[in-house]
Structure formats: structure tokens, C-alpha cells
Amino acid sequence: MLRMGKLTDYGIVLMTYLAANRQQQHSAHAIADAVMVPLPTVRKVLKSLSHGGLLNSERGVMGGYSLSRAPEKVSVAEIITAMEGPIALTECVSDESHCEQETHCAVQTNWTRINNAVFHALDEVKLSDMLAPQNVSGLSPIRFYSSAAKMSDATIQDGEFHD
């Protein structure tokens, strides 16, 4: 089973909260209260997101955390990478592969293609998309294309895909 870690999930929750409340900086304590996640966990996640370049942090009485870029410029792939390291579905597609089968593996190229597809799908989803509620029909504003042909029929206008 492919699954993000709980801290990564919290990272997306915290980033979404900060994106929705961009008018000011937020203390770790205020964020923890707002999203109902324990303060030590929030601090750990904020540290990773800051080290990943996704958050600005300022010390002092008027300090706190804020997004380093507009939500439209931050992808879900970047958040996952900041929390877990580079996205690699298998050992052979990671930068630090130690697989003994790598030199004679017949499927490594295919795993690289699959890994790239997953990365690009996550990279297309922006933090701003995570703010948008589902519409009345229950559809999310996030679109995925099931085939390259469908994707080639789409056009990009103002940074968004249109069929």
C-alpha cells in the first residue's frame, strides 16, 4: 500500500490553514489550536516545512509562521518532499538506491516512468486547490487526466487546464 505518513498529512493541513489565513503570521501555538493537532507535533511539522523552504518563520513577539510563496505557487509534491524527502515509489527510483537487483532489473525503466507520473500528478495540484471546496455536485476542482491523449486535448489558460 502506498501511503503518506501522518506527519505529511499534518503538513498539508497546516499549509492549507496558513494559505487560508494569509493576512498575518501565526504562532505554533495558535496553529495547533486552530487545526486541533498537538503542539509538539505542529512544531515538528513546521520545522520540516521551514527547512523545505515552504514557510517563513520570524522570532519575537510579533513573529510566527507564514507561507514563503503564494498558495498558487506551492504544489502538494513540494509539501510531501519537504516532509518525507524525494518522492520515490520504489528503491530503484530514489537518489540513494541500494537495490542489489538494479544492474539487471527489467522493470526499472517502467518504475521510473510510473514514479514520474505520480510526481507530476502531485505537482499539478497546488495548495490553492486544496482550499477550494467541492461544488454542489460533489466534484473537486482538482482534475486528473487518465491518458496522455486526454491531456494533449486540454489547453492551459491562466495556469489552469481546460478541456
Name a few traits of the molecule:
single chain; 163 residues; mainly alpha; Arc Repressor Mutant, subunit A; two-stranded antiparallel ribbon; globular; disordered C terminus
Strand order of the largest sheet: 1-2
CATH class bucket of the domain at 1-85: Mainly Alpha
Distance between the termini: 32 Å
Radius of gyration: 18 Å
Helix content class: 40-55%
Strand content: 5-15%
**Strand-pairing-aware structural class:** mainly alpha
Mean pLDDT: 83
Question: How do you describe this structure in short?
Answer:
The protein is mainly alpha-helical and 163 residues long. The protein has helices at 6-20, 28-35, 39-51, 76-84, 108-124, 127-131, 148-153, and strands at residues 55-58, 64-67, 155-157, 160-162.
Descriptive notes:
With 163 residues, the chain is mainly α. The protein contains 7 helices and 4 strands. The protein is globular. The protein has helices at 6-20, 28-35, 39-51, 76-84, 108-124, 127-131, 148-153, and strands at residues 55-58, 64-67, 155-157, 160-162. The longest helix has 17 residues, at 108-124. A hairpin with a 2-residue loop joins β3 and β4 (160-162). It is 45% helix and 9% strand.
